[in-house]
């Protein structure tokens, strides 16, 4: 089965050329013709206003030819020429998936898509963290993230390299970029995944994410289109230790940008004011829930956090009550964290909240309700009034640190 073009009906309007995700159409004597790069995705059929394009089979059996796609590609997110922790976590997971594919007898390599300006020095780091190959697009115009530019760049990489799987971080940038790439490539996208694996029988990507408010976990597949795309929640995958002896390859690519792609102009960049809230990287987090009773309660937690060198987290209920800003929110609809120590103060321990906390090495719960769900999940639970416990605990920690310095 394949795409057919009626030369008598074709007017050479070029609509199908723009619609084709894989540049598999070209004009020959002012008529569209199909090139060997066609994957039978069917995108061109909908674009033709003259009914000049058809499929030599039942319309409901149009199916992309996925045989030429291979490899796992990871879009690398950078900030001020530093690779994000989330991208390194995804690279580690991509390596695990590649090893799964190898065990089933399938060749699979991990490639990193690195886009920016003067970011070439980061290629070695990506290889050390699991990339077999780094595709570098280095251009002054990519210094600042712009949706249209980055969409075109990643789409061009996919068209030329035809990866079987494309992974991005479920960050604000990734959530903006991924659906646009998926739409341009006419493929599916599973957002906010917390687990990835390969089907033992078919080798397709099993993409698991929470659904219905986190009450169930849904596994989604994309069997008929490529690449299989997913965004991965930061903090849920474990970052691998770097292997400094690891070797890989590098490749530079150019992207042709036109006025058509220049839809947005960056006039000014205003940096974040105040302390950075990278909760995903915090070793200790002190979090408050409904039990802190208000913004004053969080000031109490700030004293404990200051004594421990910790950062402040919060539940959704506390954020929605307006006691603290949303960038502190931990849980299903907030950030997923992996601290060495998580101290939950007045936190009930709902399923949605604990979904973002289960990666913590140790959990201490302070709650006056001995039947709160978090008491069963915590390594240590203290049943008591946090407004009495926290000041006492803070004072003892400060006294202990003072004694250590004196000695």
Mean pLDDT: 86
**Structural class from helices and strands?**
alpha/beta
Strand fraction: 15-25%
Largest sheet: 7 strands, parallel
State the CATH topology of the largest domain. Rossmann fold
Shape designation: elongated
Broad CATH class of the largest domain:
Alpha Beta
**Cα gyration radius (Å):** 25 Å
**Contiguous runs where pLDDT drops below 50 for at least 5 residues:** none
What is the helical fraction, as a range of percent? 25-40%
What do you see in this structure?
With 407 residues, this protein is of the alpha/beta class. The chain has three domains: 3-61, Alpha-Beta Plaits (2-Layer Sandwich), CATH 3.30.70; 72-257, HUPs (Rossmann fold); 279-406, TPP-binding domain (Rossmann fold), CATH 3.40.50. It is built from eleven helices and 21 strands. It has helices at 15-19, 43-47, 85-103, 123-128, 147-161, 172-185, 295-308, 316-320, 351-354, 374-377, 386-406; strands spanning 3-5, 25-28, 31-34, 53-55, 72-76, 78-79, 82-83, 110-116, 133-138, 165-169, 189-193, 195-198, 205-211, 216-220, 228-232, 249-252, 284-288, 311-314, 341-345, 362-367, 380-383. The strands form six sheets. A seven-stranded parallel sheet has the order 11-15-10-5-8-9-16, with helices on both faces. It has a five-stranded parallel sheet with strand order 18-17-19-20-21. The chain has a three-stranded antiparallel sheet with strand order 12-13-14. Helix 9 (351-354) links the parallel strand 19 (341-345) and strand 20. The longest helix is centred in the C-terminal third of the chain and has 21 residues, at 386-406. The termini are far apart.
């Amino acid at each position: 089965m394949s795409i057919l073009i009626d030369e008598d009906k074709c007017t050479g309007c070029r609509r199908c050329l723009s619609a084709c995700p894989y540049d598999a159409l070209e004009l020959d004597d002012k008529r569209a013709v199909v090139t060997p790069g066609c994957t039978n995705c069917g995108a061109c059929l909908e674009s033709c206003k003259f009914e000049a394009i058809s499929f030599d089979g039942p319309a409901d059996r149009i199916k992309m030819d996925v045989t030429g796609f291979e490899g796992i590609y990871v879009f690398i997110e950078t900030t001020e020429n530093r690779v994000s922790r989330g991208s390194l976590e995804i690279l580690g997971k991509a390596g695990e998936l590649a090893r799964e594919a190898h065990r089933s007898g399938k060749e699979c390599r991990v490639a990193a898509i690195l886009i920016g300006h003067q970011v070439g020095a980061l290629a070695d780091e990506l290889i050390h963290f699991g990339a077999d190959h780094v595709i570098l697009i280095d251009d002054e115009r990519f210094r600042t993230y712009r949706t249209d530019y980055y969409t075109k760049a990643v789409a061009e990489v996919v068209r030329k390299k035809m990866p079987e799987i494309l992974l991005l971080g479920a960050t604000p940038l990734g959530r903006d970029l991924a659906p646009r790439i998926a739409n341009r490539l006419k493929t599916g996208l599973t957002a906010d995944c917390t687990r990835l694996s390969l089907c033992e029988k078919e080798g397709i990507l099993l993409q698991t994410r929470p659904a219905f408010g986190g009450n169930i976990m849904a596994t989604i597949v994309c069997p008929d289109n490529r690449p299989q795309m997913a965004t991965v929640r930061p903090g849920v995958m474990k970052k691998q230790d770097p292997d400094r002896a690891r070797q890989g390859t590098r490749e530079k690519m150019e992207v042709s940008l036109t006025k058509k792609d220049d839809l947005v102009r960056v006039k000014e960049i205003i940096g974040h004011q105040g302390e950075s809230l990278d909760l995903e990287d915090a070793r200790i987090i002190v979090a408050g829930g409904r039990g802190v009773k208000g913004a004053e309660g969080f000031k109490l937690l700030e004293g404990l956090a200051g004594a421990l060198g910790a950062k402040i987290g919060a539940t959704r209920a506390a954020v929605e009550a307006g006691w603290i800003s949303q960038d502190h929110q931990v849980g299903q609809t907030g950030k997923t964290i992996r601290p060495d120590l998580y101290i939950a103060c007045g936190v009930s321990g709902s399923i949605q909240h604990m979904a973002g906390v289960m990666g913590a090495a140790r959990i201490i719960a302070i709650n006056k309700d001995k039947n709160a769900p978090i008491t069963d999940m915590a390594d240590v639970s203290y049943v008591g009034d946090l407004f009495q416990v926290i000041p006492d605990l803070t004072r003892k920690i400060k006294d202990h640190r003072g004694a250590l310095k004196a000695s």
